[in-house]
Fold this sequence. Notes:
The structure holds two protein chains of two kinds. By secondary structure, chain A is of the alpha+beta class. In chain A, 29% of the residues lie in helices and 22% in strands.
Amino acid sequence: MQAFDVVVIGGGLLGCFAARNLCRWKLDTALLEAREDVCTGVSRANTAIVYPGFDHKPGTLKAEMCVRANAGFETLCRELDVPFHRCGSLMVSFGEKADAVLKKKYENGHSMGVPGLRLLSGEEALRMEPALAAGVTSALYAPTTGTVNPWELGIAACESAAANGAKLCLNTRALAISRTAEGYRIETGREDFICRAVINCSGLYADRVQELLFPSPVHIAPDAADYLILDKAAENKPVHIIQYEPEDGGKGFNAVPTVEGSLLLGPSERDNETDFAVRADGLSFVRARAERVLPGLDPEDTIRSFAAVRPNPQREDGSSIGSFVIENPGPGFWSLIGIKTPGLTCADELGRYVAEKAAAFLHADANEAFDGHRSGIPKAGRMCWERRNAAIQANPDYGEVICCCEDVTKAEVLEAIRRGAVTLDGVKRRTGTGMGRCQGSRCQEKLLALLAQELGVSEAEVTKDGAGSEILGGGRNEN
Amino acid sequence: MKTELLIVGAGAAGMAAALSAWEAGCRDILLADRRGLPGGILPQCLHKGFGLAGYGTELTGPDYAARLAQRLEKTGVRFALGTEVLEIRGDKTAVLSDRRGLTELCFDRLILAAGCREKSIGSLPVAGTRPAGIFTAGQTQEMMNLHGQDPGKEILILGSGDLGMIMARQFTLAGKHVIALVEKDARCGGMARNFHRCIEPYAIPVLYRTTVTQIHGAGRINGVTLRHLDSGREERIPCDTLVTALGLIPERVLVRKLGEPVWLFLAGNCRRVHDLVDSAVAEAEQVGRSAAIRLDKAL
Lengths: 479, 299
Ligand SMILES: Cc1cc2nc3c(=O)[nH]c(=O)nc-3n(C[C@H](O)[C@H](O)[C@H](O)COP(=O)(O)OP(=O)(O)OC[C@H]3O[C@@H](n4cnc5c(N)ncnc54)[C@H](O)[C@@H]3O)c2cc1C
Ligand SMILES: Cc1cc2nc3c(=O)[nH]c(=O)nc-3n(C[C@H](O)[C@H](O)[C@H](O)COP(=O)(O)OP(=O)(O)OC[C@H]3O[C@@H](n4cnc5c(N)ncnc54)[C@H](O)[C@@H]3O)c2cc1C
């Protein structure tokens, strides 16, 4: 049994930032994550946009947090040593109805103080972004929109939390929660945790985790969406984030030039389905949207497709909830339920919000020793030649390129494993290996060998993303 | 650092180009390759079938590579193995990385002999999950023949190109079960020679006008959905491994922004995909001879 002041359940973006912010107080904090690594759930698959906030209802917590979070994103990313590109966005329309929607959004954003918003004519938009389709009639330009790699941010927050004393407990799933005289007991099937406060950030399962002890008036009705990724070498990529506001009022669509240099396209609109499985009709939808808005893109440049799952919050009568749901069903117990877009943008804000609640509840003192600075794995591909040469002189492993598509060296891979990567995907999330045009077909065997060597296991035991996803051997699946 | 002729890639094409450039009189040649040994893809091709046109006998890949390497040893061509060429610039400089540091190299001419990469399944509109157990054919060849890694047991192969057929045979000989080769066209994608040698004798099924539309399995792949393109019929086939042989793409990213400067030559699979090593070598020898001559003399 282990005792803590606060236990955070769920190591996604929200849980990692909750844990990090709890370290601002003198609170013994544990972060429980069911899987073998953090950021493998909703935080792994999303649109990666840091929103400016013009989409939300003024005066709501969501709107307030989004505008504030956006303004502070450079500072946050500098502290956590994570690349952030404030590339700006153009929300584009192709007709009168959508023009009117943009105008509304402009006014909405303006009233909230979203900086720099401008309504552009079709010609102005084309001048700014020649990759756009010729028929564009207007655009809402938001210079403060940006993009960040979601899992890079989440992992950074987790490392920062751990450096400030939070205890990360992986492979630890909360299975049962009960009341004690002092607070709560969480059973995990490994060992029990007792604590005075609980912060439930269990993503797609947040309603069910709350229901381990309390009723949940909010339920998650998940639905899925599909995305495509185009190679960084693709021609006619936009420079800005392009958001498409369809004339028929249908689902919007985004094209995001990622911090890695690839282009992310999506999401799709499709019939509900709730797992991380791609649907063919979803891919066709994304392709058709891309062709409509950015006709110069070549589908042949696609290197990957993936699916994401949205945790849509609903009331008991089935109606959907637009605001962020922060439940407080019992003393010292908070649940973030169904936090979807802009949950990435607001991860730090939400984490700070619940941490403040818990700190006030526990009458905690501020932790003067808190140090928010975290250093990322120095990436060879992001260094200038002088620095890269110096890095090799200090550590020859920097001279050995393992992933030639994304320019990742052996030194980075070894450091990723040292920092907690235990799977191929864990290395990928920390270094970028396998994310490029060959999708790991040229570096996987080297990564297998390095993981096996560093983890002290056989290559046959190395997995893609946890038990049951062994890379070698096959023959394990009965169903 | 300076070199007259830089060759990127020490596969069959790079080595052949280096040899012929040397024989044509060029005395300052650097042959760089990221791999630790020369030969490119040849060392992983343990089957016989190389060099019928060039040597009049069928060699294994390693033997073929060794012959080229032996001839190179008698020349003054310098090797830089374990060396990644990171960048090639329009001002005729290149940046090389190895365990000792970065080198900025000035060259007068450059032959890109970087081979090709395999098209990955990510480029296809295939639905379903993204589990472990999906490999490209060349990847399984490297895994099995160079690293002793076992990719799986119940194998479906998507694509019937040469690589797919060669691996179908190797899997079968290694005691694995090749469920079928799945080919979207009405005929085999590779050379007839490989079909007669690798598929027919082992009665490996080839499903023509068929493709994979969906992948199943949470951790490791446990099946795929096949679609028969003419009837539109779909069926789910269990497997624990999916191997893709979807074709080869010339690897030219290093020079994609450079246009076609006179000092840049392409040879081997990065120029166009060669089915036979002899044809890659013959082309590279010509390229080597052209690149041997100083530009001011050639013009
Ligand atoms: C399709 C899509 C697109 C989006 N695009 C954007 C965008 O562009 N910009 C933006 O700002 N936001 C975006 N978002 C929102 C953002 O991605 C989410 O708000 C955020 O990732 C939510 O993180 P999370 O920590 O709640 O969830 P998760 O990442 O799912 O984390 C929950 C974690 O809890 C763990 N867990 C579950 N049950 C238990 C248990 N019983 N015990 C222990 N651990 C448990 C899980 O394993 C998981 O790791 C998008 C969301 C979706 C779905
Ligand atoms: C599986 C397979 C089986 C075959 N079977 C036969 C057969 O039976 N008979 C036959 O005649 N032919 C066969 N072929 C065809 C023939 O072998 C090839 O066409 C030929 O070997 C290609 O040689 P290459 O030098 O162009 O490319 P490669 O052998 O691919 O060499 C390219 C080299 O460039 C290096 N490189 C690339 N980029 C960089 C960089 N940035 N920095 C440093 N180094 C770099 C790579 O590491 C590689 O070593 C086969 C091909 C394959 C793939």
